[in-house]
């Protein structure tokens, strides 16, 4: 006699609101913004990147918790974070890494590459805001290492229209790993 496994529900499918079609010009402007942001970060232009973040930004990377299959609680802690930053703390970290000699962990500088894909855009709660869900793969290499370190996850962003562009007002990175595979978290995800 064989046992039949009962399907496990992972919770409700998230509802992000009204989807912005990939044929919509707003979608293309947002994807262009994401590509430009990635180019700044991959090029090490973190100080220039700070011009893309809103004064009221919330930037978080919650700790992932490994749960058994039938455990219906969230896989992410709501009170523990690798990053839990606002505009001031995020800018201070970036300036310290970019302008001082003290961050030995980034001397020599890491080489990183961000691959942003599976981009879905949703209208926000206000006409000038958009929720952007994407998959991100980040590679990082230091010194003369022959094998890059890899991190992947889902990014949940909120972008606010600002003039002819956008500002990042919220970013939550949901890592696929339960343990950070990088020796330190000094790169912007």
SSE layout:
Layout: E1 19-20, H1 25-42, H2 46-49, E2 53-64, E3 76-85, H3 87-99, E4 111-123, E5 129-141, E6 149-162, E7 165-175
Quick summary of this structure?
This protein has 189 residues and is α+β, with helices and mostly antiparallel strands.
> C-alpha Rg, in Å?
18 Å
Strand composition percent:
35-45%
Give me the side-by-side strand order of the main sheet: 1-4-5-6-7-2-3
| CATH class category | Alpha Beta
- Average pLDDT level: 87
Helix content: 10-25%
N→C terminal distance: 49 Å
- Counted by DSSP, the helix tally is 3
What is the assembly state of the chains in this entry?
single chain
Q: Report the uncertain regions.
A: none
Number of domains: 1
Specify the overall morphology.
globular
The biggest sheet amounts to: 7 strands, mixed
**How would you classify the helix and strand content by structural class?**
alpha+beta
Here the CATH topology equals Nuclear Transport Factor 2, Chain: A
Would you count the extended β strands for me?
7
What is the architecture at the second tier of CATH?
Roll
């Amino acid at each position: 006699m064989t046992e039949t496994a009962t399907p496990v529900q992972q919770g409700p499918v998230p509802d992000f609101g009204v989807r912005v079609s990939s044929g919509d010009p707003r979608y293309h402007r947002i994807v262009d913004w994401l590509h430009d942001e990635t180019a700044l970060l991959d090029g090490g232009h973190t100080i220039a990147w700070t011009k893309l973040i809103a004064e009221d930004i919330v930037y978080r990377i919650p700790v992932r918790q490994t749960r058994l299959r039938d455990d219906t609680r969230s896989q992410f802690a709501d009170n523990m974070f690798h990053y839990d930053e606002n505009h001031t703390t995020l800018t201070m970290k970036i300036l310290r890494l970019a302008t001082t000699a003290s961050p030995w962990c980034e001397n020599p500088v890491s080489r990183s590459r961000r691959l942003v894909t599976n981009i879905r855009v949703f209208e926000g709660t206000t006409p000038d805001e958009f929720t952007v869900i994407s998959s991100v793969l980040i590679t990082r290499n230091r010194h003369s290492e022959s094998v890059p370190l890899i991190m992947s996850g889902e990014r949940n962003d909120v972008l606010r229209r600002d003039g002819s562009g956008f500002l990042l007002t919220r970013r939550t990175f949901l890592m696929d790993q339960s343990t950070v595979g990088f020796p330190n978290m000094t790169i912007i995800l």
